[in-house]
Design brief:
mainly alpha, 0% strand
Length: 220
């Protein structure tokens, strides 16, 4: 499902505002934003698409004031699934590399560019969702990325359907096994959300959604 024109304009407006805050203009403010939206729209995305990006940016807009470096968090969210092939194992690394190239080549002062590139690289790589404690703004990036888990059941079910569609070439039994492992991994965590505000708002609903999705994957 494609974004409506006004939603696309909302995203491009956010990108241009981000570039202006960073002191960038020209191609950085227009061409790269368009390229990112094109990347987020590519086949075979059915969940990790521009709708997910828009949801992430809207969450960022709500909570940016709580982060240490709001612009670094915004950049990480823009790039975190910019490269996404369901069968690949290096999506996060390639997405982080794209972010790093953009930051280094965009015309920022060298000292700021290097520091920002390192910070955004770490934030994008945090979306690998490995177990272990998160620190600083990585907590916000990961919680925003996982906010879908705690949404209303109908919205969450759409997420699960989208993920299944992205892996539609995988046989049903193999998919159920792999997806169940992922869901159990989230449920086994002491807490799914690292920040207190996301934990309080979404934790209970996320666990209920995950349990329900896991039950649906079990053989009858």
């Amino acid at each position: 499902m494609r974004l409506r024109t006004e939603q696309q304009q909302e995203l491009l407006g956010e990108w241009q505002a981000l570039c202006e805050r960073l002191g960038l203009a020209g191609r950085a403010g227009v061409g790269v934003g368009t390229a990112l939206l094109q990347a987020w729209s590519r086949w075979p995305r059915r969940y990790h698409d521009t709708r997910h990006l828009l949801a992430c940016i809207r969450h960022w807009r709500e909570w940016a004031g709580h982060t240490e470096d709001p612009d670094a968090v915004a950049l990480a969210l823009w790039f975190h699934d910019a490269v996404y092939w369901p069968w690949a194992r290096d999506n996060e690394r390639r997405s982080a590399d794209w972010a790093r190239r953009f930051i280094v080549q965009a015309g920022l002062p060298a000292s700021r560019a290097g520091e920002l590139a390192e910070r955004v690289d770490r934030l994008v790589m945090a979306t690998l969702h490995h177990d272990g404690p998160l620190e600083g703004d990585a907590r916000w990036v990961v919680d925003i990325d996982l906010a879908i888990l705690g949404q209303a059941p109908a919205v969450y079910d759409g997420f699960e359907a989208g993920v299944r569609s992205e892996y539609r070439w995988v046989p049903a039994r193999a998919y159920a096994h792999g997806r169940s492992k992922v869901l159990r991994g989230f449920l086994a965590r002491p807490r799914i959300y690292a920040t207190d505000v996301f934990h309080q708002r979404y934790e209970q609903a996320a666990r209920a959604n995950l349990e329900r999705a896991l039950a649906a994957l079990q053989p009858s």
